[in-house]
């Protein structure tokens, strides 16, 4: 596929009354052409990147809006046009198309990829915001087409899919980004710098929590499929079953078949901070012993609350040293360390969602702010020299990488923070917690080999995947659906 594209003004137009859909206009884009080599380079740089969006309701619309706003910001805006919209729900598709009337519309992403392959439509990059159970398949087809992808978190619905997508992305070498937009924010970067600079000493524990409770999904025999929804397409790779009342939008998170409860919904955002700060994405020989505690396991619905602990070791960790302990709490469960801290100084630390415990003290953080305890330690901590870049947004970081890549410059596909090598292991970490809970016994998981150990290893290994319907497989070239 030729990565140098020629200007094609199509697809995107502004809804004049809507600040939401702000974007650069094509006249600004064209103003630099004069035929000289520099101008030619400039002209190529200024060509709009043509984006196809798969899943344009809920987060899809938000993500699209963030992408456009970030591309529009700063002294050197990036020019993008939304050339295709795809959604299995006509209501969602029509609502998005009000803002982007010239984009080509699809209901089945396989037909979008067929058009891309045949040259019927030219697309430079794909933005995916479908429910979790279709992430891997929509992503795999983009990678098979050699296209950059931004896919929402968690990167995939199963541990096995995460490993497959990581391998595909490694060979595709295209810019990728998982939709953990807080990763690009200033606070996460400052916390990573503080932890790595030893501000609270050596970290032995990290606790993360979220009070949501995406739980208790139940089947609803006889429910009628909403008129605008193509239920068969919505189910994607999963084994076909009867429609579940109100499963879409959003409530699919309550069902193992489509989501992974609160853990699957939130942990990629929140565990990202310790995973990053403690360098877990970079370690060789990473291994975890995983235990989970919650209500009795239901085969259909996710639990109302969950506690997971990962006791983590890696090759370069000195022998005999205790494992690093990472813990997750949701549905009202609270970290006992946070409870103790709150009781001691009568503070409510509920506004945070992460606690690092180090040899010198504690660091509490949420998406936007952090606090070092005790106060006496905080006063001695000097702001570390910034070692991490501060991107102008998560989408923008990806779009910048896509721009460099389309210019055939030697861009490293790892130049985005949540690239799929980083994000696939984070996703494996998160989803391994759900596997431990559903296995109902402690498990061990080897992140290098993907091998799982448990008292009932066969049952545990089965939970690393989901059965797929005929014709949907990531094992062969996914374009041959
Ligand atoms: N990064 C964030 O802050 C953030 C926030 C919310 C949701 N999310 C993630 O975004 C994704 C979507 O979540 P949501 O809350 O918007 O869900 P949703 O159910 O509200 O919306 C999903 C949209 O995708 C469409 N869709 C479903 N299957 C499709 C398919 N096969 N092809 C094309 N379109 C399809 C649906 O019709 C709907 O419009 C999830 O993975 C979720 O984890 C991320």
Shape: globular
Distance between the termini: 20 Å
Query: Main beta sheet: strand number and arrangement?
Result: 9 strands, mixed
Say which molecules are bound, naming each kind only once: nicotinamide-adenine-dinucleotide
Number of strands: 15
Number of domains: 2
CATH superfamily of the largest domain: Dihydrodipicolinate Reductase, domain 2
Report the helical percentage: 25-40%
Unreliable segments (pLDDT under 50, ≥5 consecutive)? 1-33, 36-43
CATH C-level class of the largest domain is Alpha Beta
Reported CATH architecture of the largest domain: 2-Layer Sandwich
Structural class: alpha/beta
List the helices and strands and how they pair.
Layout: H1 26-30, H2 37-46, E1 49-54, H3 58-72, E2 80-86, H4 90-99, E3 104-106, H5 109-118, E4 125-128, H6 132-144, E5 149-152, H7 159-172, E6 176-179, H8 186-196, E7 203-210, H9 231-235, H10 261-270, H11 272-277, E8 287-293, E9 306-313, E10 324-330, H12 336-345, E11 354-358, E12 362-365, E13 370-373, H13 375-380, H14 394-406, H15 420-439, E14 443-446, E15 452-454, H16 457-462
Parallel strand pairs: 1-2, 1-4, 2-3, 4-5, 5-6, 7-10
Antiparallel strand pairs: 7-11, 8-9, 8-14, 9-10, 11-12, 12-13, 14-15
The structure holds nicotinamide-adenine-dinucleotide.
């Amino acid at each position: 596929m030729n990565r140098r594209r020629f200007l094609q003004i199509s697809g995107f137009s502004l809804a004049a009354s809507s600040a939401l859909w702000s974007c650069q206009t094509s006249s600004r884009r064209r103003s630099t052409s004069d035929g000289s080599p520099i101008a030619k380079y400039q002209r190529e740089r200024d060509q709009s990147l043509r984006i196809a969006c798969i899943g344009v309701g809920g987060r899809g619309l938000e993500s699209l809006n963030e992408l456009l706003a970030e591309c529009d910001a700063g002294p050197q805006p990036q020019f993008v046009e939304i050339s295709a919209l795809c959604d299995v729900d006509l209501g969602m598709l029509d609502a998005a198309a009000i803002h982007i009337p010239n984009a080509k519309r699809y209901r089945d992403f396989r037909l979008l990829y067929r058009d891309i392959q045949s040259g019927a439509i030219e697309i430079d990059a794909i933005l995916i915001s479908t429910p979790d159970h279709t992430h891997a398949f929509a992503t795999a087809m983009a990678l098979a087409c050699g296209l950059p992808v931004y896919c929402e978190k968690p990167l995939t619905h199963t541990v096995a899919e995460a490993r497959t997508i990581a391998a595909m992305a490694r060979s595709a070498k295209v810019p990728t980004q998982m939709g953990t937009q807080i990763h690009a924010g200033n606070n996460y970067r400052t916390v990573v710098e503080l932890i790595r600079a030893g501000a609270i000493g050596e970290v032995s524990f990290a606790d993360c929590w979220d009070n949501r409770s995406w739980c208790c999904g139940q089947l609803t025999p006889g429910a009628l499929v909403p008129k605008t929804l193509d239920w068969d397409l919505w189910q994607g790779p999963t084994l076909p079953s009867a429609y579940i009342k109100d499963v879409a939008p959003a409530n699919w998170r309550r069902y193992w078949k489509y989501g992974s409860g609160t853990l699957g919904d939130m942990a990629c955002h929140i565990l990202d901070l310790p995973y990053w700060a403690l360098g877990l994405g970079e370690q060789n020989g990473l291994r975890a012993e995983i235990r989970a505690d919650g209500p009795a396991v239901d085969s259909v619905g996710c639990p109302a609350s969950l506690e997971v602990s990962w006791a983590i070791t890696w090759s370069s960790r000195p022998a005999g040293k205790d494992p690093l302990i990472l813990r997750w709490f949701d549905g009202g469960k609270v970290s006992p360390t946070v409870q103790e801290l709150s009781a001691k100084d009568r503070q409510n630390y509920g506004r945070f969602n992460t606690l690092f415990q180090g040899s010198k003290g504690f660091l509490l953080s949420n998406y936007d702010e952090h606090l070092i305890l005790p106060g006496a330690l905080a006063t001695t901590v000097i702001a570390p020299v910034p070692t991490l870049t501060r991107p102008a947004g998560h989408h923008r970081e990806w779009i910048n990488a896509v721009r460099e890549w389309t210019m055939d410059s030697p861009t490293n596909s790892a130049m985005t923070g949540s690239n799929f090598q980083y994000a696939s292991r984070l996703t494996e970490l998160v989803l391994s917690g759900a596997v431990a809970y559903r296995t109902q016994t402690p498990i061990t998981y080897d992140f290098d080999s993907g091998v799982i150990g448990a008292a009932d290893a066969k049952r545990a290994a089965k939970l690393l995947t989901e059965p797929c319907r005929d014709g949907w497989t990531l094992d062969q070239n996914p374009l041959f659906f």
